[in-house]
Amino acid sequence: MTGAERHYRALESLYASAPVNALYESRLEIPGEGRSRITFTVTEASYHAAGAAHGTIYFKMLDDAAFYAANTFVTDRFLLTTSFNLHFTKPVRAGEVVAEGRWVSGRKRVFVAEARLVDADGDEIGRGTGTFMRSRIALSGLPGYQVKEQD
Q1: pLDDT tier, 151 (very low <50, low <70, confident <90, very high otherwise)
Q2: pTM of the model
Q3: pLDDT tens, 97-132?
Q4: DSSP assignment of 78-111, as one string?
Q5: In the chain, N or C terminus with fewer CB closer than 10 Å?
Q6: What residue segments make up the domains of the chain, in order of their start?
């Protein structure tokens, strides 16, 4: 496994270890530099009063997908979201949704990344762009940032 692949697997582990992610049936995959993919399931537990997914789940998954796409470039520090612009394009009810993240620009202190949500029919249901910056939090100091050794 290359150093980059170890970093990607450790980021996937970090995502899985975050307590908030216990609230959602979701899984992060990092296929390569500047890209991420979160597959999750929308259930009635995330509905608003009108019977579709509340915008909080749109934001959470778009922000996470963009964040992890950007953090593929940073191996020493945790990034922080400094702003996020969100567009809702279609309501979604129950089913599998994919958040696809993609790095756009920046490699030093500030990073820009975007993400889109695609429903089970292949329709885009939301899109967002975020700005992220390096924090003082060392990735190596986070208990979830680890590579599980292969058997």
Answers
A1: very low
A2: 0.95
A3: 999 999 999 999 999 999 999 999 999 999 999 999
A4: EEEEEEEEEEE-S---SEEEEEEEEEEE-SSSEE
A5: C
A6: 3-140
14-67 per-position pLDDT tens digit: 999 999 999 999 999 999 999 999 999 999 999 999 999 999 999 999 999 999
Q: How many residues does the chain have?
A: 151
CATH of domain 3-140: 3.10.129.10
Cβ count near 148 (within 10 Å) = 10
Q: Which DSSP helix (H) or strand (E) runs through 57? A: helix 55-71
The number of beta carbons lying within 10 Å of the beta carbon of residue 123 is 11
What does the alpha-carbon distance between residue 34 and residue 80 come to, in Å, rounded to a whole number? 16
Cβ proximity of 36 and 12 under 8 Å: no
